[in-house]
Amino acid sequence: MGVPTMPLAWQACRNAFFVFESRRKRMAQISRISLELNASDCPKTNPCNPRHPFPPRFKDKSRFSQFLPKTHHLPWPTNTATLPLPKFRIQPLSHSIIHSFNIVLETLLIPATTDRKEIYDTLLPQIEALVADEPDVTANLANVAAALKQAFGFFWVGFYLTKGNQLVLGPFQGPVACTRIDFDKGVCGHCYRTQQTVLVPDVEQFPGHIACSSASKSEIVVPVFKNGAVFGVLDVDSDRLDDFNEADKIGLERIIRILEKQL
């Protein structure tokens, strides 16, 4: 059996707790010393107002504890210095980790890097966890589009689904888009016909390109399969020329393979 794993967020929370506990003990010690000094050195009466003597409680050191900073009774031991720290191996969130600890994903963990391969590697297990137990196709498509938009900041990310003899707009993130695309039109139609990923460095140079937005400069479209047929396409647009490369092709195709398992 291997060493148990801990997500980065859990590691940070654990470290923050030990820092907080250490500072709390130090402040309590300083407060106790301060009270003892005041009680031993203060005169019998208040020099600022002789009519009002110091409260008798400060003369009774046995009662100092009730005036120290109050701390809640915590469910963990107070002497954390003697607790053995568990050994954890830090790694990106995975499906098994998330479900073993019953984590509900609300925020993606995105590494602070411009290396897209690294971002895809971190994003992949999180997307897998998002869609693993969700049977609704629309919900999964929406979460995948949102995750890609959040992770990379692409100009437009969305799905077109096969309905009849057209591709119809599905869940997406970005500005309003073309609602229906014929199979013989644009980059999405070309992807549907060839059933292969299409990478376009400059959309203006692509024959039959449909200009849903003049801000779109480059594009990548990945087919989505269900039972051997094209269920739809994932369309990603950028407002920069030649913004997509082989790392995007491989990363997006891996994400689509995960999504296809839930269709």
Description:
The protein has six helices and ten strands; from the N terminus they run βαβββαααβββαβββα. It starts with a strand and ends with a helix. Helix 3 packs antiparallel against helix 4 and helix 3 packs parallel to helix 6. The chain is elongated and about 80 Å long. The chain has a six-stranded antiparallel β-sheet, with helices on both faces. It has 263 residues and is α+β, with helices and mostly antiparallel strands. It folds into two domains: 86 residues, no CATH class; 145 residues, GAF domain (Beta-Lactamase). Strand 6 and strand 7 form a beta hairpin.
Task: Give the helix/strand layout.
Blueprint: E1 5-6, H1 8-41, E2 45-46, E3 49-53, E4 89-90, H2 95-100, H3 116-132, H4 137-152, E5 156-163, E6 166-173, E7 180-182, H5 186-194, E8 198-200, E9 218-226, E10 229-238, H6 246-260
Parallel strand pairs: 1-4
Antiparallel strand pairs: 2-3, 5-6, 5-10, 6-7, 8-9, 9-10
Helix pairs in contact: 3-4, 3-6
Short account of what is shown:
The protein has 263 residues and is α+β, with helices and mostly antiparallel strands. It folds into two domains: 86 residues, no CATH class; 145 residues, GAF domain (Beta-Lactamase), CATH 3.30.450.40.
Oligomerization state? single chain
Whole-number radius of gyration? Answer: 30 Å
What is the number of helical segments per DSSP (H or I, 4+ residues)? 6
CATH superfamily of the largest domain: GAF domain
In helices, the fraction of residues equals 25-40%
* Strand order, largest beta sheet: 7-6-5-10-9-8
CATH topology of the largest domain: Beta-Lactamase
User: How much of the sequence is in beta strands?
Assistant: 15-25%
Q: Mean pLDDT across all residues, rounded?
A: 78
Largest sheet entry: 6 strands, antiparallel
Helix/sheet category = alpha+beta
Which series of helices and strands comes N to C? EHEEEHHHEEEHEEEH
Query: Termini, distance in Å?
Result: 34 Å
Q: How many domain regions?
A: 2
